[in-house]
Amino acid sequence: DYDKAAQSLLNKLIRSNLVNTTNQVEVLQRDPNSPLYSVKSFEELRLKPQLLQGVYAMGFNRPSKIQENALPMMLAEPPQNLIAQSQSGTGKTAAFVLAMLSHVDPNNKFPQALCVSPTYELALQTGKVIEQMGKHYSEVKLVYAIRGNKRKGIFSLLLSPVVIGTPGTMLDWCLKFKFIDPKKIKVFVLDEADVMIATQGHQDQSIRIQRMLPKQCQMLLFSATFEETVWNFAQRIVPDPNIIKLKREEETLDTIKQYYVLCNSKEEKFMALCNIYGAITIAQAMIFCHTRKTAGWLAGELSREGHQVALLSGEMQVEQRAAVIDRFRDGKEKVLVTTNVCARGIDVEQVSVVINFDLPVDRDGNPDNETYLHRIGRTGRFGKRGLAINMVDSRFSMNVLNKIQEHFNKKIEKLDTDDLDEIEKIAG
Ligand SMILES: Nc1ncnc2c1ncn2[C@@H]1O[C@H](COP(=O)(O)OP(=O)(O)OP(=O)(O)O)[C@@H](O)[C@H]1O
């Protein structure tokens, strides 16, 4: 019958996206048009031997373009500031982590490098990268400036050269609790820098931290997206920055194929989702909703239909959030229903499908191009293939989709479950 046929073809489409080999990364790393391309090896980037060991222990063979370009700037003496843009999943984290670890002096038992991330999950994830990368450089300790971590060993925290955290807690540690002496900070990293600047609360906190830092402190700003006004603001707050910026047409990744499905209502979107549930659970999927309420509703309805899904949204307790993301990372949960809280930075290699149950719009209902790029960038990590499926249910959302399409000048194909031939063609 029809549903079965449609489902099997969608299965095929998704499966065809899952064919990945390390070979593919190697091919991309030798293609000058790829953001993974490099001419240099990690050895040539003059990293400390302990860090080079860490890099290889993580299974990295060659640097990506952003790593190759940014590292020499960041490691230069005297230290230089940098505002850098590179596509999602191209290794920005490793780049600034290596810079942080290179600049701290393990003999000095106090914080020297700070990194702020917009969310709790992302701070934890980046912390893990710091730990892995610094595995063979064990003198360098790390501490997490995140909610609920204050009482845990204030002593170790005063000794740790590297601190990763969220802006509110980081500011408290600098100002209120004085765990960190800002005057001794040598490197300050803003990860997802554009959102740190564009979100008022984050901006206030980040700028207040920045004002306490010494003049010669190195500032590093990284993101996959920088809206024009945000870019200009970044240039105003960072003295004499080096700049790595993408052209608009370079921002999207060709390895992520983008589609949309046309529905008539929220309920129809839900039904369409049920139809492809089998296919998307071949690997892992993230489903984005506009509000916590919709996310809660959707997760509930999917569960009621017998589909196992996990829910992560901002109002949950941080411990709960950590548990959910761990289960998803471990593959114990195949489908994660979430909000923009997970749109940025989350790096789970197995995510092959991203579904926008609601298209991203800002407070005024305008298309949010940056969030769109970050959301679909949860798939297609470091050369992997990915699939983004947008659910359109009104003239309004069709308009949003069209504007996103125009903005990136990149076609979003219609995926018509009624048109089996079409799917067959795409699936190849
Ligand atoms: N040189 C490398 N070789 C192989 N894998 C790498 C290399 N650099 C990074 N990776 C891997 O690629 C994945 C994506 O990297 P990372 O999370 O740093 O991307 P990002 O640019 O920060 O993405 P986002 O914009 O989504 O935050 C990670 O799993 C990381 O381990």
CATH architecture of the largest domain: 3-Layer(aba) Sandwich
Question: Helical element count?
Answer: 17
What is the CA-CA span between the terminal residues?
A: 22 Å
Strand line-up of the largest beta sheet: 3-4-2-5-6-1-7
Strand content: 5-15%
Structural class label: alpha/beta
Mean pLDDT: 91
Helix content: 40-55%
The domain tally reads 2
Largest sheet: 7 strands, parallel
Low-confidence stretches: none
Shape summary:
globular
CATH topology tier name of the largest domain: Rossmann fold
CATH superfamily of the largest domain: P-loop containing nucleotide triphosphate hydrolases
Radius of gyration: 22 Å
Domain DEAD-box RNA helicase Q: 40-68
GO molecular function, one term: ATP binding
Subcellular location: Cytoplasm; Nucleus
Main location: cytoplasm
Topology:
Elements: H1 2-18, H2 22-29, H3 49-57, H4 65-75, E1 82-85, H5 92-103, E2 113-116, H6 120-133, E3 142-145, H7 154-159, E4 162-165, H8 167-175, E5 187-191, H9 193-198, H10 200-212, E6 218-223, H11 228-237, E7 242-244, E8 256-262, H12 266-280, E9 284-288, H13 292-304, E10 310-312, H14 318-329, E11 335-338, E12 351-356, H15 369-376, E13 386-392, H16 395-408, E14 413-414, H17 420-427
Parallel strand pairs: 1-6, 1-7, 2-4, 2-5, 3-4, 5-6, 8-13, 8-14, 9-11, 9-12, 10-11, 12-13
The chain binds adenosine-5'-triphosphate.
Adenosine-5'-triphosphate binds next to helix 5.
Structure characterization notes:
The two termini are 22 Å apart. The protein is 43% helix and 15% strand. The longest helix has 17 residues, at 2-18. The chain folds into two domains: 1-246, 3-Layer(aba) Sandwich (Rossmann fold), CATH 3.40.50.300; 252-427, Rossmann fold (3-Layer(aba) Sandwich), CATH 3.40.50.300. The protein has 17 helices and 14 strands. The chain is an alpha/beta fold and 428 residues long. The radius of gyration is 22 Å and the shape is globular. The chain has helices spanning 2-18, 22-29, 49-57, 65-75, 92-103, 120-133, 154-159, 167-175, 193-198, 200-212, 228-237, 266-280, 292-304, 318-329, 369-376, 395-408, 420-427; strands at 82-85, 113-116, 142-145, 162-165, 187-191, 218-223, 242-244, 256-262, 284-288, 310-312, 335-338, 351-356, 386-392, 413-414. The model has no long low-confidence stretch (mean pLDDT 91). 47% of the residues are buried. It binds adenosine-5'-triphosphate. Residues 60, 62-64, 67, 86, 88-94, 224, 345, 347, 349, 377, 381-382 line the site of adenosine-5'-triphosphate. Adenosine-5'-triphosphate is lined by residues 60, 62-64, 67, 86, 88-94, 224, 345, 347, 349, 377, 381-382. Keywords: ATP-binding, Cytoplasm, Helicase, Hydrolase, Nucleotide-binding, Nucleus, RNA-binding. A motif (Q motif) lies at residues 40-68. Residues 73-244 form the Helicase ATP-binding domain. It catalyses: ATP + H2O = ADP + phosphate + H(+). Residues 40-68 form the DEAD-box RNA helicase Q domain.
